[in-house]
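Course exercise 7: structure representation. Students receive a sequence record and must write out the corresponding structure in token form. The form below is the worked example handed out in class, using DUF983 domain-containing protein (126 residues). Read each field label carefully; the graders check that inputs and outputs are placed in the correct fields and that the protein name is recorded exactly as given.

STUDENT ID: A-19
EXERCISE PROTEIN: DUF983 domain-containing protein
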Amino acid sequence: MTDEPDRPLGPALRRGWKRRCPNCGSGPLLKGYLKVRDTCPVCGEDLHHHRADDGPAYLTILIVGHVLAPLILWVYGVWRPEPLVTITIFSVGVVALSLYLLPRLKGVIVGVQWAKRMHGFGRPPG
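STUDENT ANSWER:
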């Protein structure tokens, strides 16, 4: 642990959501769909310390389930569509929303870890 104070959390969260470096906000955070870069190509911030692990997947499942489950119940209660139509439409919705949220939530988790100086983000270089 370090005695240094936490970095500003709000900007780190916004930059992570945009999939940008939590330090400068300019450099890309990800090198592909979910692979976090080792360092920021713009400011040189070390990013390899992150420990996002299963957090983004868990949050994605949590959010998608809480958004789409009530929607499915409401649609079925109001219109009573055929089961095959319901499955088809909501399967596409689940996949699309999951693919949209997953890299953004990974960026948010890396941003939180950077702001709170977790997992080596607080160590001085060298």
